[in-house]
Write a structure and sequence with these properties.
two-stranded antiparallel sheet; 13 helices; single chain; mainly alpha
């Protein structure tokens, strides 16, 4: 446990330093990719609270991602023009939505929970398409402001470090939660939730807590996406968007805290370079992802951990 804790901290430090120095390259393309990586990492970390900790498979997590992006866009355009305030509003909207959806879905079994989250996600997708006066319909919302009374993010470097600050805040906060008492209790849900009531805690309340935290952080990722792109569209709520954090988590390894982060890095690299080398890049991407997931069911970090243990064990035998 102590060894794993040390490796997690070292990994987080290396990732933090690497993302901090990316803008020094002065390459807009790498800055853009690194921004996408940080946003997907936040989204995937939020998803893993449900999937890796509580053992709940959600097919509609894009519900909170899209609600964060659209609430940011609508608020900053129509009410108050400031990215920081808009981000905080996105978190509040996603939190309230997570509470409402959680109350309606978490009392059901795991399979029904998965189907209900998919239904709520597609319900939001349909709402975003039909409510043209507010959401712009299939065209989405463009011209999202990046400057305001408190902060100005028109400069791409300022925009990058704004995303970077939230990335660090989310990673540090979730790591503290990951090691906390309630974090361990939520993890126990994924191991065997039948024993949780014997600890004096309610399974439903722990699930609600996990769902609220997960949805709120996904809302942050959605707001940061709106800032980066300057435009939002209904595809953010589609079920394929919910698959992205799931795939990233599976690639990296759901039982490791840094698993979703490493999986997001692999996912962004694969999707970027697969689209460059072939017209059928989606097929190439699918084959690569299937090979990665089937070849290492515990994710990339599980393979690394096994290799490390094997080398350490062989060294002790020698």
């Amino acid at each position: 446990m102590r060894r794993m804790l040390g490796h997690e901290i070292y990994s987080l430090v290396i990732i933090s330093i690497a993302t901090a120095v990316i803008p020094l390259s002065r390459e807009p393309y790498y800055i853009y990719l690194s921004s996408l990586f940080m946003i997907l990492s936040i989204f995937s970390l939020s998803y893993n609270i449900l999937f890796g900790y509580a053992g709940l498979l959600s097919f509609g997590h894009a519900l909170f991602y899209a609600s964060g992006a659209y609430s940011f866009a609508i608020f900053t355009i129509s009410i108050y023009r400031d990215p920081l305030v808009g981000t905080l509003v996105s978190v509040a909207v996603s939190l309230i939505l997570a509470l409402l959806v959680g109350v309606l879905t978490l009392r059901h079994g795991r399979i029904y929970f998965s189907m209900l989250t998919l239904a709520f996600g597609m319900l939001l997708y349909a709402l975003l398409l039909k409510w043209r006066s507010l959401t712009g319909g299939s065209d989405g919302i463009s011209g999202i402001p990046r400057s305001g009374f408190i902060i100005d993010l028109y400069d791409p470097y300022a925009r990058y470090y704004y995303i970077y600050v939230f990335f660090l805040l989310v990673v540090i906060s979730l790591y503290i939660f990951h090691r906390s008492r309630y974090g361990l209790l939520i993890k126990s849900l994924g191991v065997n939730e039948d024993f949780v009531p014997y600890t004096g805690h309610s399974v439903f309340r722990l699930r609600i807590l996990a769902f609220i935290i997960s949805g709120s952080i996904a809302g942050i990722a959605g707001a940061l996406y709106a800032i980066l792109m300057g435009v939002v569209n209904p595809d953010l709520a589609y079920w394929t968007t919910s698959a992205e954090p799931l795939v990233a988590t599976l690639i990296g390894g759901s039982k490791f805290f840094v698993g979703p982060i490493m999986g997001s890095l692999v996912f962004v690299v694969i999707t970027t370079y697969a689209s460059r080398i072939a017209e059928i890049w989606q097929l190439v991407l699918g084959l690569i992802l299937v090979a990665l997931i089937l070849g290492s069911r515990g994710g990339v970090l599980e393979v690394v951990d096994r290799i490390w243990r094997a080398r350490r064990y062989s060294g002790l035998r020698i």
